[in-house]
Amino acid sequence: MPANSQCVELATRPASRFVRLARVCSAHPWRTFLVWLLALVVLQVVASGVGKKEISSFRLPGTESQRAYDLLAAHFPAAKGDSDQIVYRARSGTLRSPAIKARIQASLKQVAASPDVASVDSPFSPRGQVSKDGQIGVATLNYANSTNDIKLKPLQKVETAAFGARSPQLQVEHGGPGAEVVRFGNQGPSEGVGVIAAAIVLLITFGSLVAAGLPLIATLLALGCTLGVITLLSHLVNTPDFAAQLATLIGLGVGIDYALFVVTRFRAEVRAGRDRAEAVATAIDTAGRTVMFAAITVVIALLGLLLLGLSFMHGVALGAATAVLATMFAALTIIPALMSSSHGFMDGLLLEFDRRGGFRFWFTKRRIPLPGRDWRARRFANREERRARGSGWARWSRTVQRRPWLAAGVALIVLLLLALPITNLRLGSSDASVDPPGSTTRAAYQLIAQGFGAGTNGSFLLVAELPKKNDKATPAQIAAAVKKDRDFTFVAPPASSPDGRVATITAYPRTGPQDKATTDTLNRLRNEVVPQIEKQTGATIEVGGFTASSEDFSRVVASKLPLFVVVVVLFSALLLLAVFRSAMIPVKAALMNLLSIGAALGFVTLVFQEGHGASALGIGTGPIESFVPVLMFAIVFGLSMDYEVFLISRVHEAWERTHDASGAVANGLQTTGRVITAAAAIMVLVFASFALADDRVIKEFGIGLASAVLIDAVLIRCLLVPAVMEILGKRAWWLPSWLDRRLPRLAIEPEGRPEPAIASPAVRYSEAR
Fold first, then answer.
1. Of 506, 527, 516, 525, nearest in space to 550 by CA
2. Torsions phi, psi for 359 (to 5 deg)
3. Structural domains of the chain sorted by starting position, each given as residue range(s) with its CATH number in brackets
4. Alpha-carbon gap, residue 275 to 711, rounded angstroms
5. 420 pLDDT exceeds 90?
6. Which of 114, 346, 425, 725 has the fewest CB atoms found within 10 Å of its own CB?
7. Measured torsion, CA atoms of residues 45, 47, 52, 53, in degrees rounded to the nearest 10
8. What are phi and psi of 57, to 5 degrees?
9. SS3 of 544, please?
10. pLDDT tens across 359-408, in order?
C-alpha cells in the first residue's frame, strides 16, 4: 500500500491511548512537568513527616533459629537490645597496667552515659573477657533497643566515646551491629558516580546535551517520587534498609534505558522528515508501547519475590517494582512533554553538540571547534557510501547469520564456562572478616579471633525449655554434653530466665562464622548431639545464633526457589506468547535469560567467593549472601526480558511486513543495535558504580548486575539471538492455530501505522550540519 494511502487510512482511525497521552503531554508540557514536580515535593514532604519505619528483626517463620529467638523474647524480656564489642589491644605491657586500665574505664564510663546504652561489661568484670596473655580484651556493650531503632548520631557518639581511650600504647576497635550502622552511615552515596557515567554515555550517543538531559531528568524525577513511596510503604510492609538503595540501582538503569528508547525513536522520526508533534506521537505509540511491555516483564519478575514467604522481602519487591513503574510512566509523560518543548526553554540554556564542528550555542549559532574536524568531514562525506553497504550492525548480523551454528556454539561455550563456578556456590552470610581493610569492624573481628579464637565471633546459642521450673541440673547437663564435643573451644555457664522456665547456653565453635566447617558443626549439633541430650533430660532445645540464622535462611530460600523460578518464567513467557504470537520466542527467551543469569552468578561466585579480583574491590572472600541469587534472578530476568522485547519487537515488525525471517533479524538488529548497546553501557556503568559502596552486599549486586547486562548485551543479543533466529528461520514465528484463537491479542506495534519516511540525502546532510 502506498505511504500516502496509509496516512489517509491512519487519519480516519481513532488515535490510540498512547497517541492521546502523548498529545496531552505535548500540548501541556509545563503542566506535565509541574505535576511530576508537585508529586515529588508532596511525597517527600509526607515521607519526611511520617519517617521510615525500620525493621527490628528479620523473622524466619518455621525455622529452629526463629523458635529460639521467640523463646528468648517470651522469657528474657530485658534481652531485646543488640550487643556491640569494644575490643582493646595493649601495644606494650598488658591491659591491666594501671594507666591503660584507667583509660579503658574512663572511656567506658562515657559510653555507659549514653541513654541508648543499657549496660556495659568492661573487660575486667566477671562477664568481661581478657586473653591469657593479657594483651587483648573485650568489653560488651548492651543497647536498650535494636540498633535498627537507634539513630545514627547516638551510635556515632558511642563510638567516639569508646575511641577516646586510644593512645600509642592502646589500640581500640568497635565491632557489632552498631559499628556496622556507623560504618555505613559514614560512607558517601555511590549513585552520583553512576549518574555522571550515564550522562557521559548519553552525550556520546546523542551528541546533544538537550537530548542527553531528557532521560536523566525523567529518571531522577521518577526516582525521587519512588523514594518517597518506599518510605510510606515501610509503614505497611516490612522494608529493610537496602530496599531504597536497590530500588535506586534498578530505577537508574531501567529508567534511563526506557527514556533512551523513546528519545531515540523520536529523533529517528524527526530525521525521517516528520514534524515535531507527529514524531512525538509516533515515538510514544511505538517505543512507548515497547517500554510498557518491557516494564511489565520486569515488574512480574520482581513481584515474584513475594512468593518466597519472607516478610522482610515484601518491601524490597514492592519498592523495586514501584521504581520500574514510576520510570516507565516518566518515559511516557515527561519525555513527550520535554521533547515537544525542547526548542523552547531547554535549547536556550544548554549546548548542542555538532558532530562536524564541535559545540555551538543555540542563541548565537557560534561553533566551538573540536579536534579532528577534517576527519569528521570525511566521515560525513562517506556516509552515503556506508549507507549503501548497510550499517555495521546489519553487516554483523549477516556475518553471524552466515555461520549460525558456529556463532551459537561459541556463545554457548563462553556462557557455560562463565556459569561453571556455580557448582561451588555456597550460600550463607558473610561476617566482619570481609569488611574493607582498615575498617574498625574488620579490625575488631581479627583481634577477637586472635585473642579468643575465630569461633568467638559467631557463637551458637542453645535455648532450652526446661522440663520443670527453676531446674538447675538440666542446663548444667546440657552445657557439659556440648563441652565434650571436639568442635567447641568454650561453653559459657548457663543463664536462667527470670521465670525459671528457660535457660541459655552459649557455645563457641573452633572455626569462624562463615567457614563451611562451622556449618558442618551446626548440622551435627542439631542432628546428633541435641537429640541425645533432649532424650536424656526431657528438655526442648533450639539452636540459634548468627550461623544458625544464616543457615536457616539459606534453607528457606532454597525450598522456595523452584516455585519462584517457575512462576516468573511462566508468566513472562505467557506475556511474550500473547505479544509476539509465537511458540518459539518465549521458550528461546526463557532459556537465554536463564543462561545469562547463570553466567552472571558464576562470575559473582568467582569474585566474591573464590576471591579472583576481590582485592581490587577492597573486600574479603566468603559465601554469597543467601538472598543475592534470588534478587539477582528477579532483576536480571526482568532486564533480560527488556532487551528481548526491545529487539524482538523490531524483528517482529519487519517480519509482519516482509515475511523474510533472515531479513527481519538483520533489520531488527540494525535498528536497535546502537540503542541497545548504549542502553547496556549505561546500565553497566550505573550498576558497576555500586561497587564503590562500602557494603559487600551492594557490591555483589552491582558487580552481578553489571556483568549480567554486559553478558546479555554482547553474547546473547549480538551473537546468540541472531544465530538462533537464523537456525529457526520461519519456524521462529510458528504458533498452533488453536492456540492463536484462544490467546488474547496484545499489540506491541500500532496497527495501520505508516512506515517512517526515509530522509533524502539533502535532508540528512543539512541535519548533519
1. 516
2. -95, 145
3. 1-46+194-351 (1.20.1640.10), 78-185 (3.30.70.100), 391-430+556-742 (1.20.1640.10), 447-551 (3.30.70.100)
4. 38
5. yes
6. 425
7. 130
8. -155, 155
9. strand
10. 443 333 444 444 455 554 555 455 544 544 455 676 787 788 888 899 99
